[in-house]
Amino acid sequence: TSTLSKRKYQCRDCIYAYDPNLGDPSQGIPPGTSFEDLPDDWLCPVCKSTRGDSSLFAINRATKKEVIVSG
After folding, report:
1. How far is CA 42 from the centre of its chain?
2. pLDDT digit of tens for each residue in the chain (71 aa)?
3. Which of the residues 12, 14, 27, 53 could staple to 49 if both were Cys, CB 3.0 to 4.6 A apart?
4. CA 66 to chain CA centroid, nearest Å
5. What torsion, rounded to 10 degrees, do the Cα atoms 70, 21, 42, 25 define?
6. Residue 66: which of 2, 1, 7, 14 has the closest Cα?
7. What does the pLDDT read at residue 28?
8. CA-CA distances (angstroms) from residue 18 to 28, 62, 69?
9. Nearest-angstrom CA–CA distance, 53 and 3
């Protein structure tokens, strides 16, 4: 069993983190939409960076700390 959970994508240019459980209501993205399934023209709702300007991070269940997975 993986110790990582609650994967989110953090914008590299600002503090916004895309959470698939919440989606992005500001752009009509429903809850449950994975980051990979966001439209190609999706932009960070805070700073308008592109999808490629995000890093994947997760919460380590053992330490309760965020861990960058890729980016």
Report:
1. 12
2. 344 345 677 787 887 888 888 999 999 999 999 888 989 899 999 988 887 766 655 555 566 555 555 55
3. 53
4. 12
5. -150
6. 7
7. 96
8. 13, 23, 14
9. 26
